[in-house]
Amino acid sequence: MLTYVAKRLGQSIFVMIAVAFLAFALFRFAGDPVMQMTGVETSVQEREALREQLGLTDPFPLQFLRFVADLLRGDFGFSFRTRQPVGEMILDGLPATFELGLVALAVSLVVGIPAGVYTALHPRSVAGQGLLLVTLIGISVPTFVTGILLIFVFGVQLGWFPTFGRGQTVQIGWWSSNLLTPSGLRSIVLPAISLGTYQMTLTMRLVRAQMMEVMRTDHVRFAIARGLPFRTVHLRHALPNTLIPVITVVGLQFGGMIAFSIVTESVFQWPGLGLLFLRSIRFVDIPVMSVYLVLIGLLFVLINLTVDLLYAAIDPRIRIRGSA
Amino acid sequence: MTRVAKRIGSWIRNHEAVYLFVHSPLALIAALFAIITVGGALLAPWVVDTDPYDPATYRLADGFLPPAWQPGGDARFVLGTDDQGRDMVASILYGARLSLRIAVSAMAIATVVGVSIGLIAGYYGGWFDTLVMRIADVQLSLPAVLTALLIDGIARGVLPGAQRDELRIMVIISAIALSLWVNFARTTRAAVFVERNKEYVQSSQIMGEHPARILAVQILPNVLAPLLVIMTVDLGRAILLEATLSFLGVGLPANAPSLGTLIRIGMDYLFSGQWWILWLPTLFLVAMVISVNLLGDFLRDLFNPRLR
Fold first, then answer.
1. CB-CB contact of B277 with A148 (8 Å)
2. Max Cα separation, chain B?
3. Neighbour-count burial of A252, counting CB atoms closer than 10 A to its CB (0-12 exposed, 13-18 middle, 19+ buried)
4. Does the beta-carbon distance from B286 to A263 stay under 8 Å?
5. Which of A92, A192, B65, B273 is surrounded by the fewest CB atoms within 10 Å?
6. Mapping DSSP to helix (H, G, I), strand (E, B) and coil, where does residue B274 land?
7. How near does any CA of chain B get to the CA of A281, in Å?
8. Which residues make beta-bridge pairs with A172?
């Protein structure tokens, strides 16, 4: 087990270094930081002095090491567009995206898992077929269309929910939450549903497939043969076995949430990291882009690592194979 | 007449794929919508008589006209006009044409790159194979939108003159292609693994044929079937990816709108009642993607040996 953990950790560190290298290459070679920071009036000598001062004339490996050291210290540089420290911009956007992702994940699980169980247990019913059709549509319709539809039906026509922004937020230390105010709660509903829809359809299909498979296993059949009430069979015997692969897949799909949050935040003007990244691409704001790249890389590496370790902890075969 | 009908009927029954297709209502409907949307998009210059990209063919005074069956509509513009006075039918068809052009080009590049890499990795194995599979694993865990956005951002940073139209199209096509090649590479590699040990390959090797010739002439034709399925399924993904990029504003510039850009423009008019500017391109996009996806599903089930 320990060798497996060590191997996975080593691979993760390697991937992180590769990502950091990519980000650094982007930062260093795409565009010229000095040209971005100075105006047209500064003379060539002043630019050269600035270049020297920033350490841009040092050898490549040295600059890379300095870049990594800065990252580890939390110094992310300054945005080309707003001249703000990038770290500050990220901290501003992080609570918004995090809360949105959390609520969307909750929605997708709370709706997706029961729906998947239902379609597995009642495959021929009208509701079951209807839900399956909904999943087919949910996978084919792009995320921004779902968002626009929700805005149109619930925001414009019915007027139940606000159509953009976060509503009122509450500051707790450096974290700004909008889950504690009524207007904030109302404004998170539509974006969360929009973001969670794709995930929900995937979860529903996965739970359905797993549940159908588990229902055919011997121990479940034995439980039914023993005369246990169906509810006990389904909830206590079948469902836990279904959920193990579902949890791991959901964890891996969480990365997809990050990407789709870019689209959703754009549709609903949600001031989070996705919108920040989008603006940084439009304005070619290299520091923000490279830091975002590193953060996303870190997030994915952490998710993959956690899921792999979780799997290894649950399934003994992986441990044995991994250390052989 | 009945003799011709009998000949057609027996031809259908003799070819399993055709038989299953004709007897599956979903596949037929999907094919119908696919022909309408894709065909309309491809034949746009001949179907509509105005070119929405040429400012001389439309007038601002014609703007914001509702579809012809609503009060205030004009019979000249069956589906209404947008804010600039362009005919909606023309904008949608030309926009779909552009989206299709980008998606198909991206898929072609992804196919060529992915299949080549898959062939080499599958045939030779070794460090190249491991390296490619590692990269593929990492890239597969990243969502396609994110990869495409990152590549677009990097291209913008590296090529300062890339704001020009021609380069923008190349950048977007490359971004989408680079998000899609992995599927092709993996499937080809798996198929090559299977074919590699068969006797016809071994006999070619003994005869001293050059590996490139073996790969191209012997192995490639036998791995084409699953690739066809992936191409159809990924076409839908490529179209969606392009629409998403255009919707986010990092796609093509606004003077040559694709479907995604049209939807983004339409969103501005969501609150003011000109619903046709938004919903008509959306409907077209969704119909096109769903029909292509359903056809891909049908093909996939057809070729899946486990369902036989």
1. no
2. 77
3. middle
4. no
5. B273
6. coil
7. 5
8. A175
Q: Which of A281, A295, A305, A307 best tests the B interface by mutation, with the highest count of B CBs <10 A? A: A281
The pLDDT tens digits for B200-211 are 888 888 888 888
* Smallest Cα distance from B63 to chain A, Å: 22
What's this model's pTM, rounded to 2 decimal places? 0.80
Q: Tokens representing B281?
A: 């391109």
Does residue A276 or residue A25 have the better pLDDT?
A276
Non-local CB neighbours of B99 within 8 Å, separated by 6+ positions: B41, B239, B242, B243, B246, B258, B259, B260, B285
B29 touches chain A (CB under 8 A): no
Residue numbers in chain B where pLDDT is lower than 70? 62, 75, 159-166, 254, 303-308
Of B157, B271, B285, nearest to A286 by CB-CB distance is B157
Question: How far is the alpha carbon of A280 from chain B, nearest alpha carbon, in Å?
Answer: 8
**A82 and A259 Cβ atoms separated by less than 8 Å:** no
Q: How far is residue B42's CA from residue B103's CA, in Å, rounded to a whole number?
A: 13
Instruction: Give the CA distances from residue A219 to residues A81, A122, A210, A224, A239, in Å, rounded to whole numbers and listed in that order.
Output: 61, 20, 15, 9, 12
Q: What is the pLDDT of residues A285-315, one digit of tens each?
A: 778 888 888 888 888 888 878 877 777 776 6
Predicted pLDDT at B108:
92
Number of A to B CB contacts under 8 A, please give it.
Answer: 94
Q: How far apart are CA A287 and CA A31, in angstroms?
A: 11
